[in-house]
Records
---
Amino acid sequence: MSIFLKYREWVLAAIIALMVIGISFYAPAFGTLDNATGVLNDTAFLFMMALAQMIVILTRGIDLSVAANLALTGMMTGLFNEVFPDLPAIVYILVALSIGGGLGLINGSLIAFLRIPPIVVTLGTLAIFRGMIVVIGGGSQVNTSDMSATFLGFPKLSLLGLSSVFWIALAVALFAWFFLSMTRSGRGLYAVGGNPIAARYCGISMPFQQLLAYGISGAVAGMSGYLWVARYGVAYVEIASGYELTVIAACVIGGVSIGGGVGTVAGTLLGALFVGVIVNALPVMQVSPFWQMLISGAVILAAVIINARAEGRALKLILPEARRAAAQAKR
Amino acid sequence: MSDTPSPSASRYTVADRAPRKVSTFLLRWESILVMMLAAVIIGNTLKSPYFLDPFNLADATYNFSEKAIMALVMALLILIREIDLSVAAILAVAALAIGFMGEAGYGPAALVLTGLLVGLACGAFNGFLVTRSGVPSIVITIGTMSLYRGIAQVSLGDQALATYPQAFLDLGQTYFINWPPVPLSFFIFLVFAIGFAIFLHGTPTGRRLFAIGSNPVAARFSGIRVDRIRFALFTLSGLLAGLGAVLLTARIGVMRPNIGLGWELDIITMVILGGVAISGGVGTIGGVVLAVFVLGLSTFGLSLMNVPGIVINVLLGLLLIISIAAPIVIRGSTGRR
């Protein structure tokens, strides 16, 4: 079974390929290049957000506040645009990155310095960020008519049929790969998640790694917030509501271990692509979009259970000898 | 022998327990919650003349009783280092079944039974997956949350179910005791709270939960059937979510696929504010009950002041983080982990 683990990503890629082929037989429109780019454009947000979430989960943490951060930063960037219209798009991206990163660092400081469990902190900030949208926006929404041309234009740019959002997601993926495999602090994320005590003895600072992880997670969520608001042309309270669970689901399908220290960029991207293909296939196959949740739930369960079986049950049985003895005694 | 040690002559005294200090008692999480609760009640009474009205208070309990019932078993799950994120989705599936039975014209007893059984079945499925697969329950229940909520969405789409016998609706819409006014859901919560407290703090199985939460491996080696208890608690969680579905549908009289959406986070907030450590092994039912009242009454008080619901969420989120952070900052340590 170790083959499955070693080639885990290949297996997932093969499943996605089979799915795409199967769906294309059923609905030929799905197998076209046009549709493929459509799927990639559509899934771009999930690619970025899942990678950022993976970085947090590597440290044995979890960031439930990403979707709320996305919505709040999107709203704040939208309001910033009302005050300073017609700045170049890069300015809005930088503003969104810093707001999102700042929000992420709030999470990170509470977790790193006060050592409050991540799930508690991000559950709290989820509610706070979401509510702050109403407080800051005065309960109103930012509409397309309130947004400037440069603000709206950027996500609509495209190259080779792929939108700028996708190219940014690709850049995030390359950055994540480089950061996680080539840099000291990137490797440190695996170390603190794999064995915090050993990491401590190696001189890796847990608080620093946590700040880094939640800061990155927040920054990516914030940037996605700007892109999301500009792409869909509206900022309001409910944006991306519940999206954090889709993001975590993509990570889990992609083989990121909730226990920390295990996860790859390729696996996470494939996990996100898997969700993206399903979401996009349903309308093509004329299946009601209401099926999406049920299917992704079934897939998550199947993925994690197959994965657990592949890892073997040795970890599970605490008293295998005793059980075997009991079984023999019965005979 | 002349030097037989007498109790008074001994250099040491052997006490049954450490002496109780006032400071330890005051720094107990439950004491802090009592002070918070007192502050909430006094503050709201001064702020609004409508706060201390028994009928208003009784109606305020409607808004948290179903969640509070589900929080009791969530507290036990978190205590043994597990978590059930699918409770709200189980509630939706159970409410769906109740809705269909209502459309089919069954009586109130059948509706209640359906809700409970469907909840039980969903919970047992969770328990089965968690104990059989060895995958962390947070992952399993994210999966089943999607699955259960998905079942409700696929079956109903954008429709709603709203045919229920009047006797069933009366369960949720009339007072169970007329004076003082006590709704059925709140009454059930009180009874269950007492039951859970006795179970957790007064029975051997309750002690075993603390053992599992402190160290599951050691607990298994000392002969505790860890997996059986896990399975039982997940099943119970499903059953109480089914009960929540019964009470909620009876109260609002309509079932939509988004019923109870996001409740799992509200419920977990109640449990964590109640002082149950997310890392397991620490917590009391009394703390959870107090947290339920702190959250429920502050929500009620704030809405009396016309604060919008989403802003209340901001304040409750702040309350959660500050109340966990403050003792850590004050003590300068990380004792409550």
---
Amino acid sequence: MIGQSKKMGWGFTAPALLWTLAFFVAPFIVMGAMSFAILEGRNLIWGFHLDNYIELATRPYLWRAVIASIEITLTVTLISVVLAYPLAATIAFRVPRHLQRLVLLLAILPFWTSYVVRSYAWLLVLAREGVLNQTLINLGLIAEPITLANTRFATVTGFVHFFVMLLTLTIYANLIQLSPNYRRAAMDLGANAFQTFRHVILPLTLPGIVTGAFLTFVLCIGDYVTPHVLGGNNELTMPQVIMVQLGRRADFPLASALAIVMMGMVTLAYLAAARWLRLDRV
Amino acid sequence: MTASVHLEGINHWFGSFQALNNISLEIKAGEYVTLLGPSGCGKTTLLSVLGGFIQPTNGQVRIGNNDMTFVPPSQRPTTTMFQDYALFPHMNLRDNVSFGLRMAGMGKAERHKKADEKLDLVGLVADGSKRPHELSGGQRQRVALARALAVKPDVLLLDEPLGALDLKLRRAMQDELKVIQRQVGTTFVHVTHDQEEAMAIADRIIVMNSGQIEDAGPPSQVYNQPATLFTADFMGEMNHIPAQIKKGKASTNLGTFPAQDMPDGAATLCIRPETIHADGRGLSLGTAQVKNVTFFGAHIRVILASNEKPDVTLLAHLPPGDMPKEGSKIPLSVDANALRFYPECC
Amino acid sequence: MRTYLPWIYLALAFGFIYLPVCVLVLFSFQDGGLPVPPFDGPSLKWYREVLSDRDVTDALIHSLFVAVGSSAVAVILGFLAAYGLARHTLPGSAFIRLLLVAPLTVSYLIVGLGLLIVLSRAGFGLSLGTAGIGHVVINLPLAFAIIYASMGAQHENAERAARDLGASEMRVVVLVTAPMLAPAIAAAFFLSVTLSWDEFIIAFLLTRFDITLPVEIWSMLRSGLSPRLNAIGSVVFLISVAAVLILEFTTLRRRRS
């Protein structure tokens, strides 16, 4: 250690620490306390009231949003992992080494558009007058345009589009640092491609998959833009419901309670994934 | 199980770089052969060709009497022991060793029994439930050997298996590998860059350089009668003395020496340091002045400069005893059959 | 057939990935009024309209402001904290590191919501500055993590040598540590700018009159499908691609020399 002086150490670390405490930890605590407050008319009453949480559990408008969020997030995570893994494997094992970086860059390129704009672009593709419907009609596969936009299908598609890219990157990073000798040894001992994957590659990459899936879960469940642009008004997700509470009534207490519940779900997901997240690289 | 190996006219290019140049080799069934050479000589490439991980640009690989040139590793009767062992970290030792048997469809009880037999062969049967990361480097190497032997290959390919071990462990493992090979009778092809290791372990040494075979033969032959200058220098330290040969006689700065059956012209006379004597036996090399003396335990390493021609330096390994003083003059001589000539023309 | 399967999959995957962006860029040149088929000949009118729109250009400048400003703060704070923790033994340093990295695990919506509650209860107005504060909160953990991970033993030795030659700690930090960590600092800065530039929800919650580009695009969205959005989206895309290419070429050139 260069400086044993604790004062200097604090001097360097304090600014970042203070910022985090003031603008992250404190608001978090306030939000937590706020979730136990109630709004009476335009007056905010602090205290320990469970009203918001009870309302969350009993009002269908609210708990349906919780269910919708969980269902959508789990669906998106599952589909994205299943689609991303073969893509990552193809790039890691089939594409020539010196081209891999280029291929990855090309795969990321479309995501350099604004996030808001990208969701909008999916709206264009999936609209009744949009590209997908028009193509299907022109190919003679359907007679009338199908409603794809403003549905859960659209939300899921929009999410999967982004998370397949993210998961491809994380799974690729995992696959590429696997010694090629594992595959060679497995083949040498008589395993075919599928057996090599099932008995050697998959178990060794499982921690990376779980990490990526957890990341997907966290980002997906807290996202407001995609469900709002693509999901329509028939079904709302938790972030949308939170925003509604902020907009119309400025109901900070209810919004806080919803946010706390959302954090709770993330924590549950973390606990489920913790077994693999804690596993050190062998 | 065991089989012979025949390589005919193997050539291989990586892009424009030729890694293997017209390699032809015969290995008898049950032989322990080492591929010896410096980094980049092509020995690992040749091993990969034998293992089926590389298809040679042209040439033929026969194992037993079957053409295996294009047969993939999973169907070839060879197994490879990789340099980093490549033990599956998520399986215990028993599952690692029985992996090949499982791929062949063997039932759990039977393959575990066979795996334990192989673990017993390498002395690790009590650790069958452990994971690779719990073992030392030497132990992992033995598990890799057990795993490779479990599928009863005809040919076992070893890619610098002892490189990661310290000297004492390496020596012990060399002996162990030899014993196990004798026991199972499988043909072993062992790649190394260490000439001492090759001499300790091989029935035959194949010396390679720049994609070609320089020499092949039992250790004593390759050491004492190296076929090429490269082999001579690679197998151990050598004295180089320029010579001119005319009608079976070589004239050098240290005198004239017999050189029967050698073509006329310029050549290099090579003499092993341990064949130079200070007691007068054999052909005289004149007198030399001691420049540097180092005690090496089993021999004394002496660097000398010839009295007659002071710019000719000689290296001698004298038997242990009284260490010669620096500056003293010693008469040197050499056995007649220790002279090796390498003509410049060839 | 089996050997072609991976390549077919790769092609399909890329098709899926590029579909919305291709549609976006294609219909930004739409001559008609709706960014849907049929495509009526290329026209630059929407680009002209969008780039001459004061709100849009203002929002673009605001975005840059917030991105560069908040990233600079995040990187400076992150660098100092990384140095403080890596080179000094502090009590509970593991806990401090955890705390600094914690915001990464929390959804942006919640970060923004928390700040919104605190700021509005405290009577503070919303502005680009408050959005910037929020962006520092989300970027500080990243900057800290990246720089901390890059502080190696070889850096410590160089710092020791500088101290040995008489430099005070502050001078060591400025003249030795920071330049040595330039790649990590640059990477952290670039990443922060990228994330901040495109960030929506925190900017949406914490700005009021002056807004950033994603928020401006959002309000344009409220008025329905229009090639204007395609145009602005394509412009943002182009800027991002250009930035990445410039970075690739400048770092590539540095690597070769």
